[in-house]
Amino acid sequence: MDQTALEGMPEPAVLRLHTSDGQVLVTCGRSLLYRYDALDTGMRNLAIVALTDAGRRVDEVAAVFGLTATYVSILRGRARASGSAGLLRRRGRPPKLSDGQVAKARRWAAHGWTQQAIADRFEVAQSVISELLARLGPAPVQEVLPEPADAAADTEPAAATTAEPASAAPVHAAPVHAEPVHAAPVDTEPVAAFAGTARISTGTFSCRYAGAMLLHAYLDRVGTQTILGTLTGGPARRYDDLAILTTATLGFALGIDTIEGAKHLRRAEAGAALGLRAVPELKTLRTRLGALADGTDPLQLQRAFAAGMLTADPAGDPVYFVDDHFVPYAGARPVAKGWNTKRRHAGPGRDDTLLVDARGRAVVFSSGEPTGLSSSLPGVLTQLPAVISPDAPVLLGFDRGGAFPVTFTACRDAGADWVTYRRAPLAETTATPRKSWTVRDGKRVTVMLADESVQLNGYGAARQLTLFEHDQPVLQVLTSDTTGTGADLLCWLRSRWRIENTFKYASKHNGIDALADYAMDIGPNTQMVANPARVTARKQAKAAEAELVAAERALPQLLNGQDTPKQKNAALPGAHARIQHAQTALDDAKTALGPIPAKVLATELDPDATRARPQLPRRGLQMVLRLLTFNAEAWLAEHLNAYLADPDEYRAITRNLLHQGGHVQYGNTAITVTLDRPDSPRIARALHLLADELNNTPARLPGDRRPITYHVKPA
Length: 715
Fold this sequence. Notes:
Blueprint (H helix, E strand, L loop, with lengths): L14 E6 L2 E6 L2 E7 L3 H13 L4 H8 L3 H14 L16 H12 L4 H8 L3 H11 L66 E5 L8 H6 L2 H5 L12 H13 L13 H6 L9 H13 L3 H15 L6 E10 L8 E4 L4 E13 L4 E7 L4 H9 L13 E3 L7 H9 L3 E5 L12 E7 L2 E14 L3 E10 L2 E8 L6 H9 L2 H13 L10 E5 L3 E3 L1 H28 L5 H29 L5 E3 H4 L4 E5 L1 H29 L5 H8 L4 E5 L4 E5 L5 H16 L2 E2 L6 E6 L3
Parallel strand pairs: 5-9, 9-10, 20-22
Antiparallel strand pairs: 1-2, 2-3, 4-19, 5-7, 6-7, 7-8, 10-14, 11-12, 12-13, 13-14, 15-18, 16-17, 19-20, 21-22
Helix pairs in contact: 1-3, 2-3, 4-6, 5-6, 6-11, 9-11, 9-20, 11-20, 12-20, 13-14, 17-18, 20-21, 20-22
């Protein structure tokens, strides 16, 4: 008996806990002690403490509520120390600012305070204020009503009505490194819409990424500032939208795979390469980039960059290559499956369809579920007229994965010629092989080709080129181009490996395969899948066919056996009956197989079947920036190799030069970049000549009007 019970009292009733319809009932014998919602942790803890204070043993109460005796003791200690407030702990990280402080921060931001000044007032990091304003924005400021004309001379200026009270810290009370709002005179030219307070005005900065500033020569030529200026995100003051986008571009150029890799950059030195005092912190960069992507059409953005690229630096040849690139997915979402060419089996992932020009530069792309080139090619072709002139000639090269009549028809409907390999087996050749030649890289290339016209089912007439080596046909090429020489078309098709090199290089150095966003749209699986009923019916038909073959084979075996004629005559009716029965079963199986569809909707087999579809905007924007850095590096490498003359290593040397250190001087009217001299004399000479070439057409930073001049530090 418990010591708290009086002498002579009966033993206490058994303590029980019941759960019904989301309610928890705590009973003792026939008495109901407590009733509360199953999710109400505070009421549960209050009941536990009350029961133990009433004399119930700690281990007994813990067993009833499914807890440990140690945790029940902890709850009792919290109740003694903090009362009922200690029984319910707030989950998650506590907010940095109270509701009142949030309202003040928004009001001060609307009145012109810098984010750093607000952060210093509340003693929090500047990123806290930046995220708050990006999410909620400054508080709306009510416009002052106009004063009557006769009272205007006796009243204070309207600006005085929006000033902070005397108790609030003035804007100029912020630390020295924060730029005060009153620093600019009222009558000066207003700052452009894309300018933020983190922009560098003047000064000299050491920069370990000074070599990456060479990419600004390409970015300025294709109109990066104008194109990215069309994107708008959430409100912010320190880092404008252009600063966010150029920071991500610089990071991809320097080799980070994901946005998370930006935290490994030295913020101040990376900012010096972009005209910023420091690049944004990771949280700011991720939040702001996501806000920019949500209101963006990445495909239209890529077309604008491609048009600028081809205008500034035309390809020279109207040849383009297109192919699919499978990107595997290792998560748990039910994404679509495709053929993983590296592992040689099917797996979950997505397909990126990329179209490049004759020099391997990315032009347009699309992204979606794995389908195959014959399905994704029409969507890419519709984007091409927006990049080049609709009447411009186009020769599209692709591999055997797209060699289907539906693909050929899509090219013909888009007004483009095509060239591809013929799928096996090789067709019979009726034309006599003849020599055909062309010139590649200053060298004459001669091949033996049989040139003829063939009819393709589902398409029509096409040109067929059969390559002969040692008097034997080795491959066949199909094309709709009837004017080009056979050797020229064959050489262009062999150059299709340029798009494979683009995929390989951009995947390794620009992170086009990286997962950019975890957000996916989950919906019903509308894909057509194999019908298991038809699979079962086909198995039955095959079994019936095998039985018929066995029955027909048994008849001659019976006739040629060792049995007597009397025995054979007795067994013949059974053998014929077996054949007849097998034939009937086969006919019935084929009849049942006919109306069963080969594929059905996945939801017909499983009503709960779902499909996860990655959201395109956020990943699409990053894809555009990655391809922009890829094209910029390719352009820079081509110009460097004009002086380096090293076709094997010029891309690797260019990538290394992007990390070349130096100093950046921001003057009132110009920006001077002084690069450290490379150790190799031939690279130093090529870099010096490249700098002279770029200085002939001075580039500008996105968001800055001052021209850039490049120099190499003297030996």
